[in-house]
Amino acid sequence: MLYPTYGVASLGKVAVEVTLQLYLFDFYTRILGLSPILAGAAFAVAILWDALSDVIVAAGLFSARRRGVAYTTVLGVSVVLLAATTVLLFSPFSAGSSFTLFLHLLVAYVLVNTGMTLLDLPQSSLSAELSRKATERNKLLAARMGFGILGLAIGSALPGIYLAGIEGEPSMVELSDSRRVSAYYLGALVLVTGMMTAFGLKKRERLAEHGVVHSVPSLADVKALFADRAFVQILIAGVIAAIGRTVNAALALMYYRFVLELSEAQVTQAIFPVFTLSIVLSIPLWIKLSKRFGKRVPAYISIVGLGVMGIIAYPILPTGLVWPALIVSAIGGVLCGAVFLVDSMITDLIDADELSTGKRKESLYFAVWKSGLKVARALAFVAIGVGLEWMGLDLSLDVISGAMQWGIILLFGILVGLCFVLAGYFIYRAEVPNPTE
């Protein structure tokens, strides 16, 4: 029961995360009418705070651990905050100026990201503490990803399920209701799954922490982290891939709506579910490949393959047809299934560092890793907001010009693809020590 108990918290967390990635920008711009540049600015500020909060929370975790506060205790508090603020984020005041809407988005998103950090860092740190065997940690991380993929499926499908009973194209009010009602379900899911992990692992965590040295990292520890060539290579790869992933998620509904001329129902009830199912089915394949070839090569193949596919496929997919997009989504899902290998590579670096220093610094490693990814996401949202404003894209329209369609294709397909290819290059260069089996 260790693996599912550890991983189940990711179901609710990732469901919220993917809902934010796929629907939040669209919700505040197209549905509520906030300008893309204001929405991008709010996203950027909230995510930059999120990156800073990773460092603050990591330092707090070190201090709390020295005082006997368990990771699972912090995790239990975090799910209450995340559940409440998710509902708040999708329930803005019905009347107000653009500034009021901007302020609501900013404050609510900051609170959601804080809750996400308080959940994510303890869970990530537990993966390195519950077991010292690489094969067991792979199973922990795979379980976490497996539940996360179920969360991805739920988060991406919930608004579509709400809209399934509506005949014809939904109105803006119905679209808004689909997001708001989904947020209530997501909040309940976060509470249930997070508490299952927090209470289910409490005893196991107490048994695992004996003999582990927890101390606040010094400036020398931070410098040593950036002197770790393999970690820096993985961090650079993660930052570049995060930029691509952010652009891809923010523009997904726009690409399918404006370029491929598919309805939201076709996207949320067919394309997104096929994508997530493909990820789930591919996880055993990537575990098997990592055992035979190590983690670096499969991770490199998956991310470069994802980039090349996007560069080739997205500019040429035919309009009005669902099945070509389904094929691309299935292939993309299989390639995305190797993502958990990167987190596993970081835990191997944590073990190697412990052998040389005698300290467990999982919170420091994951704080720097996640902070880097979040800074990249913030920069990407600024670029998206400025880019859409510069293009003059009117999100309330049903049809846009060919030039604007190509602008979306260049961002969604080619730019994102190039980011993944470059990230794969740095993953391949990362020489991670062989883990202890």
Characterize the structure shown.
- The two termini are 21 Å apart.
- Helix 10 (229-259) runs parallel beside helix 15 (362-391).
- The protein is 81% helix and 0% strand.
- The chain has one domain (2-429): Up-down Bundle (Growth Hormone, Chain: A).
- The longest helix is centred in the N-terminal third of the chain and has 32 residues, at 98-129.
- It has helices at residues 2-7, 9-31, 36-66, 71-89, 98-129, 134-163, 172-200, 202-208, 219-227, 229-259, 264-293, 296-313, 323-336, 340-357, 362-391, 402-429.
- The chain has 437 residues and is mostly helical.
This entry's quaternary arrangement is single chain
Count of DSSP H/I helices: 16
- What structural category do the secondary elements indicate? mainly alpha
CATH architecture: Up-down Bundle
Shape by Cα distribution: globular
CATH domain class = Mainly Alpha
The radius of gyration computed from the alpha-carbon positions, rounded to a whole number of angstroms, is 21 Å
- Identify the CATH homologous superfamily: MFS general substrate transporter like domains
How would you characterize the largest beta sheet? none
Q: How far apart are the termini?
A: 21 Å
Unreliably modeled segments: none
Count of DSSP strands = 0
Number of domains: 1
